[in-house]
Amino acid sequence: ALSMRLCAPATNDEIGRLTLSFNQMVEQLETAFKRQKQFVSDASHELRTPLTVLRGSLEMLLIGVDRGDIETSRRLARSMSSEVLRMQRLVEDLLALTRLDEGRRAAREDIVNVRTIIDKVYDQAQQLARGQDIRSDVAANIFSVRADPDRLQQILLNIVENAVKYTATDGCVKLVACNGVDNTVVIEVRDNGKGIPAEALPHVFDRFYRVDSARSRIAPQRIGGSGLGLAIAKELIEAQGGTITIDSIFGQGTTVTIRLHAVTNDVEVTPQSL
Ligand code: ADP
């Protein structure tokens, strides 16, 4: 039904213009429709993999229980539990994306103290680290930003989680925040981990994209990740008027950079000053 197009002679008159904008609309609809179909197919595939793993484990668990093999049963139950957790995270991510697609960008817009957020993420990063050196460096005169504080913290945590995940245990992950040009605040998460191959870099913000997807699928509980983290981060940051970019050198490390509008003191109206 969406493959219709109007044909009109290439004229400058009103009918010509209407035809053109109608055809453009149809094209946009087609693109959205294709995207939606791809999303459903990718999401189903992502859910099928952990379900297959769970089914296999459950069958083995039943055999183990029948044989009275407590140790094996316990090990299987544990791995099933982590697989269920992974599925739960995936479903949460899928719901987050669906809400974004629906345009329900009900982002709370508060004036957010960047240092407070970085400090919280730093503490969480310490918990995540498996030996990596976690550092943070926030400029003394850092401006605030207009953003949703919970979402910003969640996004930064996801990025830090990646940095820790893809960095050797003797590596380093650093959170850096400073004021940028044109009234922006720049937040960076730098790591000196495995890095991303140049040919993969343009795709890391795509939904479901994982650089090493074969390995991620074989050992999902170890590598984790659905390939949705950066896609969600990008949509959320852009919904708050910001940008997110990634730089990486394969074998040397990765830097994710977020830029948000700064709230400079002269526009900030505090209740005391009224
Ligand atoms: P995932 O849930 O798999 O982590 P993301 O969308 O967060 O998905 O990231 C997409 C892919 O980008 C990851 O699978 C990983 O291959 C790569 N990646 C992201 N961050 C880093 C990093 N700091 N170092 C190396 N590779 C990374």
From TrEMBL:
Primary subcellular site in the record, as a coarse category: membrane
Organism superkingdom: Bacteria
Protein EC: 2.7.13.3
GO molecular function annotations of the record: phosphorelay sensor kinase activity
Leading EC class: transferase
Domain (HAMP) ranges: 1-34
Keywords assigned by UniProt, alphabetized: Kinase, Membrane, Phosphoprotein, Transferase, Transmembrane, Transmembrane helix, Two-component regulatory system
Locations listed in the record: Membrane
Domain named Histidine kinase: residues: 42-264
Gene Ontology CC entries for this record: plasma membrane
Catalytic activities: ATP + protein L-histidine = ADP + protein N-phospho-L-histidine
UniProt-recorded name of the protein: histidine kinase
